[in-house]
Amino acid sequence: WTSSSCFGSGEGRREGDRFCWFMSSIGGERDIPGTRGRPESVFEAIFKPLIATVLRVIKDPSSPASKRVLGIFLLVVLAVYFLLRKGKSNASSNRGAISASVSSEPRITVKSEFDRIPVGKRVTVVANDALITQEDLAATEGEASQGNELRVISQAVPSVCELARCCDLYIITQCGSDATEERVRQALEEAGVYDAGLNPRKVLFCGTEMGRGSMARQLEPCLHIDTSAEVALSLRPFIQQVVGIRTPNNTRLESSSVHLVDGFADYFEKAKIAL
């Protein structure tokens, strides 16, 4: 196009000159031989009359046409404002619905007979001598162990089930065979720990004391329960609360900062805490 073909002559032509300069500056093309009469592009069809009208409004804002354009512009602004306001209102209502659904979730309450249960927090427990006696674990190792079944210490069952219900519980067992691992899983299932809420994938196994200490440190619990003096003392600087269960082999814990109890349930059951 040329300015004369777009806008005629006189004032319209001068406006057309300015428009055609604008179009060429953003990628429009001037007429070249052999292209006169080509169809307008979508960009030209939409923005040519719009920019020409804006130029007329700037030149003569008091004309009737300018007033109509200004009126339309104000209506568009108001429409955009109300649309944005409606969008914000919908977003706020959605956030309120989400908050309501979160707050409506049942809150876990610890049973009255228990204390020191860190609800919703991560807890790691080493099963050796805390949940299953080391003697029983050793009896399941080797060829002569066929038919030997494991049982969770009866006094520990209520407390470990409450931990499984209220906490993000991990149980670590140090053992030396796949057969023992399977029997530990079976013992936890029979004791109802899985039904109480323990994820079977959070039952872990290792072959050394160093391994169970490394697992606990990587899991970063707020509470760790162990029977190994070496593991408990090594974790004490890194874990908020470390509890040791007394055995003949961990007397070193007596004079340490590790909280020491006689049995697993003694740390959680109110009746035993009071003794």
Describe this structure in words.
It is a single chain. The protein has 275 residues and is an alpha/beta fold. It has two domains: 3-59, no CATH class; 122-273, 3-Layer(aba) Sandwich (Rossmann fold), CATH 3.40.50. Helices cover 49% and strands 10% of the residues. The protein contains eleven helices and six strands. The chain has a six-stranded parallel sheet, sandwiched between helices. Helix 10 (229-235) links the parallel strand 4 and strand 5. Helix 9 (209-219) packs parallel to helix 10 (229-235). The longest helix is centred in the N-terminal third of the chain and has 40 residues, at 64-103. The N and C termini lie far apart (99 Å). The relative contact order is 0.09. Mean pLDDT is 79; it is low at 1-8 and 25-35.
Key terms for this structure?
single chain, 275 residues, alpha/beta, Rossmann fold, 2 domains, 6-stranded parallel sheet, 11 helices, 49% helix
| Rg over alpha carbons | 39 Å
Largest sheet geometry? 6 strands, parallel
SSE string, helices as H and strands as E:
HHHHEHHEHHEHEHEEH
Backbone shape: elongated
CATH superfamily label of the largest domain:
HAD superfamily/HAD-like
> What is the β-strand count?
6
The CATH architecture name of the largest domain reads: 3-Layer(aba) Sandwich
Strand order of the largest sheet: 3-2-1-4-5-6
The assembly state of the depicted protein chains is single chain
**At the third CATH level, what is the topology name of the largest domain?**
Rossmann fold
Name the CATH class of the largest domain: Alpha Beta
Helical region count? 11
